[in-house]
């Protein structure tokens, strides 16, 4: 054969082509066969292999807040679009009425945070149009987070040191709250509160 990719081999007797590619490929190869009498024939064939599919959404999903709406769209790369998403194993969080959250075929996860705090683990599967599939385990916490209710003059705070430490996974000494005209976290703001919840 001419132009056979690295990692591929062909059985000179049976003509079986073996090999694989994790990154995918699409190229032409020339195959030549010779019979016992020395006669030859050749043909130009296309060898195409789809790249493997990978779920790129981080395993630790953004937390949900009890009673608040939640929406997230899973993402993947590789394979051949369109993708189809489904719950492979585990259980999705529950809405306050006890019904499970919805995972749409396009990968959108949506629901309302349960009134009971907890951490949910589940495995999501994605398959491309050629049937190539991948799985990934995710963790999603439902917990109360720091809540800021802004106004032009002041901000009302509902928080505790314990809840903020659980949310970020580290100990803290206090928080600072800035008021800004832009939702951009990098935008300059005016300090309106700084403390540990006792002041």
Number of helices: 1
Number of domains: 3
**Assembly classification:** single chain
Give the overall form. Answer: elongated
Helix content: under 10%
Strand order of the largest sheet: 6-10-9
Strand content: 35-45%
How large is the radius of gyration? Answer: 27 Å
Q: For this structure, what is the CATH class of the largest domain?
A: Mainly Beta
Structural class: mainly beta
Number of strands: 16
CATH 2nd-level architecture of the largest domain: Sandwich
According to CATH, the homologous superfamily of the largest domain is Immunoglobulins
**C-alpha end-to-end distance:** 79 Å
Per CATH, what is the topology of the largest domain?
Immunoglobulin-like
Description:
It is a single chain. This protein starts with 8 loop residues before the first strand and ends with a strand. The chain folds into three domains: 9-49, no CATH class; 54-142, Immunoglobulins (Immunoglobulin-like); 147-195, no CATH class. A three-stranded antiparallel beta sheet has the order 6-10-9, with no helix packed on it. Strands 8-11-12 form a three-stranded antiparallel beta sheet, with no helix packed on it. It has one helix at 161-168; strands at residues 9-10, 17-18, 25-34, 40-49, 54-55, 69-73, 76-77, 84-90, 102-103, 108-112, 118-127, 133-142, 147-150, 155-158, 175-179, 190-195. The chain contains one helix and 16 strands. By secondary structure, the protein is mostly beta strands.
Keywords for this entry:
16 strands, mainly beta, 199 residues
